[in-house]
Amino acid sequence: MAVSDHVNLDEFMTGLRRRNPGETEFHQAVYEVAANVFDFIADKEIYHEMQILRRIAEPDRIISFRVCWEDDNGNIRVNRGYRVQNNNSIGPYKGGLRFHPSVNQSILKFLAFEQTFKNSLTGLPMGGGKGGSDFNPKGKSNNEVMRFCQSFMTELHRHVGEDTDVPAGDIGVGAREIGYLFGQWKRLTNKFTGTLTGKGREYGGSPIRTEATGYGTVYMLQDMLQQAGEDLEGKTCLVSGSGNVATYAIEKINHLGGKAVTASDSSGFVYDAHGIDTERLAFLMELKNVRRGRIEEYAKEFGAEFYAGERPWRVAADVALPCATQNEISTAEAQTMIGNGIKAVSEGANMPTEQEGIHEFTNAKVLFAPSKAANAGGVAISGLEMSQNSARITWKEQELQDLLRNIMGDIHTSCVEYGKGEDGYIDYVKGANIAGFIKVADAMIAYGVV
Ligand code: NDP
Ligand code: 2IT
């Protein structure tokens, strides 16, 4: 066999940047994985010979399409839709859809790349994909959202299916949007299968899919603390975001005796020294998920503090759960958090910490669970929604609660296996990257050059 050229990390990244100009989020996500994987495969010739990392960082395909729809005033509107199918070596492409004005190809490529490793970590047979649109659901009527979703699915349906690619929710795509998308998929194909997950319980949705990402992120935090001989009881927690992931993370923090003191949206953050307890959380969920209002209203309702245009990270606390969006913890904010004595960070959002910020946390020996491990609970329950749909059965809620807890525990164990250093500090970033990589890489080797 020919001995391949061994490019080093710098050469690999130079090539990646050249082939994907301007896609900074994608570069960032690949670098984070490549930095660990290059070390791991240094003495493993087969991964070099088969160009595994080079191939995982080149999506299998990217579908991009025009989405035309009519607003309530009869104007024709045009958005761009995408599906990035990154890798299906270990199962059908799987990953969410994001509707947000910031969506572009770089963001969806980073998310699809991350999803490939995350899905591998769950232990379930799912490949990695992601999609979405620059459509902004804010301020749109239900009918406008419905017409957009129908138009979006009219193209997307050619590319997805229960054994091909199974989308779900992400930012801006929740129960309402999944309902409209699945309704149109069913109408176009005349089939009823598990082609989308996160569906309503009445039509094939799984128990606890809604809660799973937030709960799982807190389970990862709990396991990291336990490994270090601590627990969540009495700990103050910084949470960002106030959507699906953030609100169910707060619910689980409350179950486990912690105290969430912040939440945020794109307008700013609230600091509530009393803690976002059950009653206040119910208000927050109704405000953000039902009325789709702004978070300042929470501060007014409960006499909490509101900081317009700011993020929660300068508030002193024991642990932090970033649950809004990418790059929402800057390097400077990471330094502030370390200075304030933060003990652990569990990433509910995808890639919420800047590259250098992650190094700050790990150099300071803060317990740091990266998103591909910490927020994998959502897609794990999506995987089990697919299983239930294939078997045409719905499992009991308690079974799924137990499965989620076990899957998060197994992910923690995998991170410890590959991330434990000689001094006993667990580098969860390294652990997650290597554990996620191996399974996909070995499957790709089995297939030969395809
Ligand atoms: P939602 O749409 O339910 O909520 C998003 C929240 O983040 C809102 O509070 C929103 O504020 C805020 N937000 C979004 N974009 C920005 C921004 N650019 N700046 C500041 N705040 C912002 O989304 P989810 O809770 O589902 O997703 C949150 C994160 O979790 C994302 O990174 C997503 O990829 C990740 N994730 C989600 C999973 C899921 O199952 N839903 C699974 C795994 C990861 P506003 O209301 O003002 O827009
Ligand atoms: O980032 C993610 O893991 C998600 N948005 C959930 C994906 C899914 O298929 O449930």
Overall SS class = alpha/beta
Ligands in the model, by name, code or SMILES, are: NADPH dihydro-nicotinamide-adenine-dinucleotide phosphate, (2Z)-2-iminopentanedioic acid
* Name given to the CATH homologous superfamily of the largest domain: NAD(P)-binding Rossmann-like Domain
Average predicted confidence as pLDDT: 97
**Which sequence of strands runs across the widest sheet?**
1-2-4-3-5
- Name of the CATH class of the largest domain: Alpha Beta
Give the C-alpha Rg: 21 Å
Number of domains: 3
- SSE topology string: HHHHEEEHEHEHHEHEEEHHEEHEHEHHHH
* Biggest beta-sheet profile: 5 strands, mixed
Amino-to-carboxy terminus distance: 18 Å
Q: What fold name stands as the CATH topology of the largest domain?
A: Rossmann fold
CATH architecture of the largest domain: 3-Layer(aba) Sandwich
Shape field: globular
| Content of β-strand | 5-15%
Describe the structure.
By secondary structure, the protein is α/β, with parallel strands linked by helices. Helix content is 48%, strand content 15%. The chain contains 17 helices and 13 strands. Strand 12, helix 13 (355-363) and strand 13 (367-369) form a beta-alpha-beta unit. Helix 12 packs parallel to helix 13 (355-363). Residues 100, 102, 169-172, 174, 213, 241-246, 265-267, 323-325, 348-350, 375, 378 line the site of NADPH dihydro-nicotinamide-adenine-dinucleotide phosphate (NDP). NADPH dihydro-nicotinamide-adenine-dinucleotide phosphate (NDP) is lined by residues 100, 102, 169-172, 174, 213, 241-246, 265-267, 323-325, 348-350, 375, 378.
